[in-house]
Task: inverse folding
């Protein structure tokens, strides 16, 4: 069995030359590689810059990767948090 693994620092879905929030730009980039596992850094939730979305759940839904895990490593003083996440085609 061959597996495709992608590691990606999504920078809370803020990036590109325009430095704006664009969840779908991240979805397009990940979809291009058709990974079985996505290891992501700087995945946000419950914060203003992430539009108060749970990025791990939203990305998992949009990519069709139903198995996920999320680990918080930064809690922000003004609310919200970000950390590392795993999305997978297979149970974790």
Result:
């Amino acid at each position: 069995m061959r597996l495709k693994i992608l590691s990606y620092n999504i920078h809370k879905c803020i990036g590109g030359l325009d430095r704006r929030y664009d969840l779908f730009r991240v979805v397009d980039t990940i979809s291009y590689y058709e990974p079985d596992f996505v290891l992501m850094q700087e995945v946000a939730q419950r914060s203003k810059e992430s539009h108060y979305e749970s990025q791990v759940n939203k990305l998992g839904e949009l990519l069709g990767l139903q198995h996920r895990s999320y680990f918080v490593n930064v809690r922000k003083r003004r609310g919200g948090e970000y950390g590392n996440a795993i999305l997978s085609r297979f149970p974790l």
